[in-house]
């Protein structure tokens, strides 16, 4: 007997669009939460499963490598086979992998489950923004939707650190993965009901519609090797043959991918996506912004624990005000400021606040008091609530309906590149500075503090470069035209080909 066809999706009423945004944001929340919740539970995982010191890093690295390597490919395939289908499949893979990770009884089992989690995360998050921009086409609504979506990132990161400590202490490290199950299953149920069931540009035609298999192999292999090189900088060193060899081969593969896209009849990533200046500038600014904020997200947490003596739970609570302030700014003010002053002005203001934020962190006293020295500085983290929604608007500004998943995957990929930049540059610089101070006779706490301050200073320099790029490359739109509209007009006038 023939199976019953699925019910048609509901009409895109205002209510259903906002419920759909909640579904997308919930999936992104649990994915971001998972990235930070693991770091707090690492000592407990090591003790329970018997990880070696070097092997433990692969609990994080396996996830990052899979996630970073597959974003671009998943975004484009979502455009071809349907973004809802890709989002649902990714959420299902992530949820199943979370169950496997929670049940892990050996190091190899957990590492494999984490890799699978990274695959699912890439599939779901690569198309999330693509779904959002097709749901919200009116500029005011889209601005509010992007602000709400950006808020989930800050919330997930902060909640992950708090929940990681609480769940590990109260139950066990297994529950940092089990907590994903009810959220993932709920998202899957609501996805079928509320997300639009787009057929995809290829209607399932795959390669004929642009699923360039050689291009896919080149970009995936290049990003895999590049991610592998970056996450092993701390283990092998930034100038070791192991790191440089993997990085060089990865770059060559990515260069081959770009050449393939310029000449292929049906490219995986049509280069027209990067033609508007606002798009490539926004992606480059994001690399600098995320690379700089790595110095806060990781180095500041280490500073609290290793220099000021905070515990894991206290560290999460200490950083919670930043997430609250970012949430208030992104949800309450960002969309209105973008509409009133424009995305570029709002972006620059946010970047300026974050630069001041990192400069002040670089001047923290050795025995800093939380209420008088740290909390006032943390409030400047509100700049992220201004900068990220505006930057996301620019990054998605020129996405055609058929390319929305690709643009979303690209924007998420540059986010991972920025994180890799932070890991490679800031961690290496901080470690070198710490070793130098230890060699000069400084105490361990003082040497660590010196290394972290250097990382904050480098982060501030990256943000200054981002401000210059925003002021020069983003430019001003034509009179009476918003930046996002100007970029969209630019791409719509471009030829349909590469």
UniProtKB/TrEMBL annotation:
InterPro entries, sorted: MFS (IPR011701), MFS_dom (IPR020846), MFS_trans_sf (IPR036259)
GO MF, one annotated term: transmembrane transporter activity
Any one Pfam family match given in the protein's UniProt record, by short name: MFS_1
GO BP: any one term: response to antibiotic
GO cellular component: plasma membrane
This protein's UniProt keywords: Antibiotic resistance, Cell membrane, Membrane, Transmembrane, Transmembrane helix, Transport
Cell location: Cell membrane
Protein's membrane topology: Multi-pass membrane protein
UniProt domain Major facilitator superfamily (MFS) profile: residue ranges: 20-478
SUPFAM superfamilies the record matches: MFS general substrate transporter
Transmembrane annotation, as ranges: 18-45, 51-74, 86-105, 111-133, 145-167, 173-190, 211-231, 243-259, 280-304, 316-335, 347-365, 377-396, 417-434, 454-474
PANTHER family noted in UniProt: BLR6921 PROTEIN (PTHR42718:SF46), MAJOR FACILITATOR SUPERFAMILY MULTIDRUG TRANSPORTER MFSC (PTHR42718)
This protein's name: MFS transporter
Organism of this sequence: Streptomyces hainanensis
């Amino acid at each position: 007997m023939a199976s019953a066809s699925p019910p048609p999706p509901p009409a895109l009423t205002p209510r259903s669009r906002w419920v759909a945004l909640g579904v997308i944001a919930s999936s992104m929340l649990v994915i971001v939460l998972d990235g930070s919740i693991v770091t707090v539970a690492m000592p407990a995982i090591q003790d329970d499963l018997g990880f070696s010191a070097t092997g433990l890093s692969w609990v994080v690295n396996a996830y990052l490598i899979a996630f970073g390597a597959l974003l671009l490919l998943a975004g484009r395939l979502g455009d071809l086979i349907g973004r809802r289908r890709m989002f649902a499949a990714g959420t299902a893979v992530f949820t199943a992998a979370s169950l496997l990770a929670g049940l892990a009884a050996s190091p190899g089992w957990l590492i494999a489950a984490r890799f699978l989690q990274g695959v699912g995360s890439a599939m779901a998050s690569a198309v999330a923004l693509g779904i959002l921009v097709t749901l919200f086409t009116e500029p005011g609504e889209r601005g509010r939707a992007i602000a709400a979506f950006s808020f989930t990132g800050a919330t997930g990161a902060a909640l992950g650190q708090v929940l990681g400590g609480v769940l590990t202490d109260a139950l066990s490290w297994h529950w940092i993965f089990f907590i994903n199950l009810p959220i993932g299953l709920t998202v899957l149920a609501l996805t079928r009901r509320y997300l639009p069931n787009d057929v995809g540009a290829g209607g399932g035609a795959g390669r004929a519609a642009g699923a360039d298999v050689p291009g896919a192999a080149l970009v995936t292999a290049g990003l895999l090797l590049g991610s592998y090189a970056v996450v092993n900088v701390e283990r092998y060193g930034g100038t070791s043959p192991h790191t440089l060899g993997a990085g060089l081969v990865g770059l060559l593969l990515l260069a081959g991918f770009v050449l393939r896209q310029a000449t292929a009849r049906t490219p995986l990533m049509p280069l027209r996506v990067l033609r508007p200046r606002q798009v490539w500038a926004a992606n480059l600014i994001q690399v600098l912004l995320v690379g700089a904020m790595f110095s806060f997200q990781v180095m500041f947490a280490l500073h609290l624990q290793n220099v000021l003596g905070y515990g894991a739970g206290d560290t999460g609570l200490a950083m919670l005000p930043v997430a609250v302030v970012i949430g208030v700014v992104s949800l309450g003010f960002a969309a209105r400021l973008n509409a009133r002053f424009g995305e570029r002005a709002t972006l620059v203001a946010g970047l300026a606040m974050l630069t001041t934020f990192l400069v002040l962190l670089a001047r923290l006293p050795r025995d800093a008091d939380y209420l008088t020295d740290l909390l006032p500085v943390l409030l400047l983290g509100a700049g992220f609530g201004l900068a990220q929604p505006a930057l996301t608007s620019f990054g998605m500004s020129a996405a055609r309906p058929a390319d929305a998943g690709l643009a979303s995957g690209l924007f998420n990929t540059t986010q991972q590149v920025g994180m890799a930049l932070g890991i490679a540059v800031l961690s290496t610089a901080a470690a070198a500075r710490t070793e130098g101070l230890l060699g000069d006779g400084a105490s361990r706490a003082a040497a660590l503090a010196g290394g972290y301050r250097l990382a904050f200073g480098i982060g501030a320099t990256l943000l200054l470069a981002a401000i210059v790029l925003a002021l020069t490359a983003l430019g001003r739109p034509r009179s009476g035209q918003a930046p996002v509209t100007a970029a969209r007009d630019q791409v719509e006038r471009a030829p349909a080909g590469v």
